[in-house]
Amino acid sequence: MEKVFFDLVHTDAHSCARAGVVHTDHGDIQTPIFMPVGTVGTVKGVHRSELEEDIKAQIILGNTYHLYLRPGTDILRRAGGLHRFEGWTRPILTDSGGFQVFSLSDIRKMTEEGVRFSSHIDGRKLMFTPESVMDIEREIGADIMMAFDECCPGTADRKYAKDSMDRTHRWLDRCIARFDGTEDLYGYKQHLFPIVQGCTYTDLRQEAAKRLRDLDRDGYAIGGLAVGEPAEVMYEMIEVCNDILPEEKPRYLMGVGTPWNILEGIARGIDMFDCVMPTRNGRKGMIFTCQGVMNLRNKKWEDDFTELDPCGTSWVDHAYSRAYVRHLIHAGEMLGLQILSIHNLAFYLDLVTQARQHILAGDYESWMNTVLPQITQRM
Questions:
Q1: How confident is the model at residue 3 (pLDDT cuts 50, 70, 90)?
Q2: Most exposed residue of 95, 179, 187, 213, measured as fewest CB within 10 angstroms of its CB?
Q3: Catalytic residue among 12, 95, 309, 350, which?
Q4: Model-level pTM?
Q5: Are residues 264 and 313 in the same domain?
Q6: Of the candidates 258, 275, 292, which is a domain's last residue?
Q7: Is 143 noted as a catalytic residue in this protein?
């Protein structure tokens, strides 16, 4: 008998927040969950031991486009897949490269067949098709694979958004045919998530969600948000999609976002999140805390010798002072960027852990409404 992929454990009585468990062959994932982004086989500036023991990441991401370029699928296959290559024993999810269709628009050409990129590294030509992306993701060996899609700009007009969505659906049919027609390569099961697109148009999002729901896949992603549209519009589109997507399947909001975006997404029924923000902002000197957002580049922290974050859950929060970390950042020392990346990731993982606890306790909405004013203020 085939193992159940997702167990919905509890839904909050006063919101759509859910606690569940995603079951993979590399371990269970307690949801809601935040997934650190390891684009090229590493979460930038963070050791594996810190991810596992301090940050307590349950699943991390890799990116198909970037891993295809470096180290390449030949190396990954000879290593036995990305898990063995990077020494990570827990689940991995791979994005399909669809976001690069959006973010690298100046070095790509899109046709019905797929997308031709010029490598941002050496300029060589690359052709990504739904079929080739499924093959690459098979060779990478992620537990959860994303279908190849076009991430439509948040400001696109309706005609472009409709054409983009329709193309994504045609590509999805090809992705499913290739995925279902090929085998797992490394002795464990892989799962394919389709992606709901449709930009900020309610009827397009509804059409996409209904079409994908009828495919009855293991889980579903919501893409094309946090790409230029206002936050309130993003929240509205989440509600539109989740009103249609099946309750018994996990829902993944791609590329989102701030801690408050995540809490609002959880309240609307999202189970899985990823974003580069914790590490990217950390490398710029910005950290998120239970008391608000701090920019440690600012002079006000120059002689603040208190702990980095007295409420923090990471060892770095209590080992270093704000003044010292500010010094490291201004001196251009790599250690400062590492400390802040570790702090931010630990904060994100602790936040979703607390969210799950309050969902199970039945008071998620009241807890969220208490927390939001605190974490959004500037310190």
A1: confident
A2: 187
A3: 95
A4: 0.96
A5: no
A6: 275
A7: no
